[in-house]
Design goal:
With 188 residues, this protein is of the alpha+beta class. It has a single domain (13-187), classed as 3-Layer(aba) Sandwich (VC0467-like), CATH 3.40.1740.10. It has helices spanning 105-113, 135-141, 152-156, 163-171, 174-179, and strands spanning 13-17, 30-36, 40-45, 49-53, 67-70, 74-83, 93-96, 99-101, 122-132, 145-149. Strands 1, 2, 3, 4, 5, 6, 7, 8, 9 and 10 form a ten-stranded mixed sheet that branches. The longest helix is centred in the middle third of the chain and has 9 residues, at 105-113. The radius of gyration is 17 Å and the shape is globular. The chain starts with 12 loop residues before the first strand and ends in a 9-residue tail after the last helix. This is YqgE/AlgH family protein. It comes from Sandaracinomonas limnophila. It holds the Pfam family DUF179.
């Protein structure tokens, strides 16, 4: 199959794992690049739900059932969030229209407590995905990742279990074939 790298590697780019990527941390994962420079790349896995909720990470707050996602295998003590409400959460970094990374954490929690923000407008992550300068480019050149442009619907509206296939389907062409690959090729 012929794949082209027609999306620049920058904040707002999605990394879509090749179907048989050997690294189990990224098996069929979609990573949103939040920051990219010559020295490093920082991203968050969008489609890996964590087995716990946010409450244990909040000091003195009692909030139940806030979903938590695993942003990646690096430093699971770091809490990050994506949102689309800069009117309620100051200090966020704009990734694309209607998608912001981070911001004032206390304002985010207050907006949740006061029911001013819904969980289709904010998503929390522990850990992150990171690459040293040039490392990710080498992985892309070896066809470990396919690139796509992020759309806020991928972060907030698409069910996380369907995200990998949905992004490939939306890319069209040969990518649609990749979306149909079984997890275990011996079952094909």
């Amino acid at each position: 199959m012929a794949f082209k790298r027609n999306v620049p590697l920058q904040a707002g780019t999605l990394l879509v794992a090749e179907p048989y990527l050997g690294d189990l941390s990224f098996h069929r994962k979609v990573v949103l690049i939040c920051e990219h420079s010559a020295s490093h790349t920082f991203g968050l896995i969008l489609n890996q739900k964590h087995d716990t909720i946010l409450e244990p990470f909040l000091e003195g707050q009692s909030l139940e059932d806030i979903p938590l996602f695993s942003g990646g295998p690096v430093d699971p003590s770091i809490l990050q969030f994506l949102h689309k409400r800069p009117d309620l959460i100051s200090g966020g970094v704009r990734i694309v229209d209607d998608l912001y990374w981070a911001g004032d954490f206390n304002e985010a929690i207050d907006a949740i407590v006061n029911e001013k923000i819904n969980f289709d407008e904010i998503k929390f992550f522990i850990g992150y995905s990171g690459w040293d300068g040039g490392q990710l480019e080498r992985e892309i050149d070896s066809n470990s990742w396919h690139l796509a442009k992020v759309q806020p619907k991928y972060v907030f509206d698409t069910p996380f279990a369907d995200l990998w296939r949905q992004v490939l389907q939306d890319l069209g062409g040969d990518y649609r074939v990749l979306a149909t690959y079984p997890d275990d090729p011996s079952l094909n």
